[in-house]
Amino acid sequence: MKTLIRALTAVVVLFWAHTSAAQTADEIIERSIAALGGRAAMEKIKTRVAVGTLSMGTPAGDITGSVEIYGAAPNKQRTVIKADLTQFGAGQLLVDERFDGTTGYAINSMLGNRDITGSQLDYMRASAFPNPFLDYKAKGIGVKLGAREKVANRDMYLLTFQPAAGHPIRQYVDAETLLPSRTIVRFELPQLGDIEQWLDTSDYREVDGVKVPFTLTLTNSAQIITMTFTKIENNVAVDEKMFVKP
């Protein structure tokens, strides 16, 4: 039971989500920005609210619940997950992860609350809203373009970002659509130790002139979690206090 609950603590939804020798990493990134709707359209987005459902398959049965993700420029984020674990004898689960742009805090009804620290915090600080492609240079993040690889039978460009602090972030971009497809990160969690996590983004739809993934799939050594969004809205009123440690 603890393994199932701990898997949910590894949910870190950030907005990372998102070669021929003649091309450079910067060129691939700019082409991806254009495919997503363009720099001008993306820079008009100051907040976003995504609401949907969550599904996590386990050997003991499926866990279903709700998910809400909030984002605000320049890099504030909050993810709230609720699930009913009564079939496992554990009652109601609440996971609430907040990042105010500098510090992070995690609320977990099963495992207790904690400050987010270490490489998980580094990862949050390296992110940006609505997309880290827009200002990675200003953040001092280096990037290298690797060889093309196959991911889910599709050709992908591999971009490896190196923040000033923390582990490298591997970002795959679909070579045909130029949309971000998979992000791979490493960080340490108190409950799980050093883990590698994949974030797959799919079902892109246009919202206010910008393409946004309506399905996120998180995969790590503990579990696979799928989030399917039913509503995504940009530039809605968001209280800045919601990102702060309560």
Structural features, described:
The structure is a single chain. The chain is mainly β and 246 residues long. It has a single domain (2-243), classed as Clam (outer membrane lipoprotein receptor (LolB), chain A). It is built from 4 helices and 14 strands. It has helices spanning 2-9, 25-36, 39-43, 118-126, and strands at 47-56, 63-72, 76-84, 92-99, 104-108, 114-116, 142-145, 149-151, 154-162, 169-174, 180-189, 193-207, 210-219, 224-234. Strands 1, 2, 3, 4, 5, 6, 7, 8, 9, 10, 11, 12, 13 and 14 form a 14-stranded antiparallel β-sheet that branches. The protein starts with a helix and ends in a 12-residue tail after the last strand. 37% of the residues are buried. Mean pLDDT is 89; it is low at 12-21.
Quick tags:
246 residues; outer membrane lipoprotein receptor (LolB), chain A; 4 helices; globular
Give the mean pLDDT: 89
CATH class: Mainly Beta
Tally of helical segments:
4
Low-pLDDT residue spans = 12-21
Query: Using only CA atoms, what is the Rg?
Result: 17 Å
CATH topology: outer membrane lipoprotein receptor (LolB), chain A
Number of domains: 1
The share of residues in helices is 10-25%
Summarize the helix and strand pattern as letters. HHHEEEEEEHEEEEEEEE
Q: What would you call the shape?
A: globular
Instruction: Find the structural class using helix and strand composition.
Output: mainly beta
CATH superfamily caption = Lipoprotein localisation LolA/LolB/LppX
Q: What is the name of the CATH architecture? A: Clam
The biggest sheet amounts to: 14 strands, antiparallel
Number of strands: 14
What proportion of the residues form beta strands (DSSP E)? over 45%
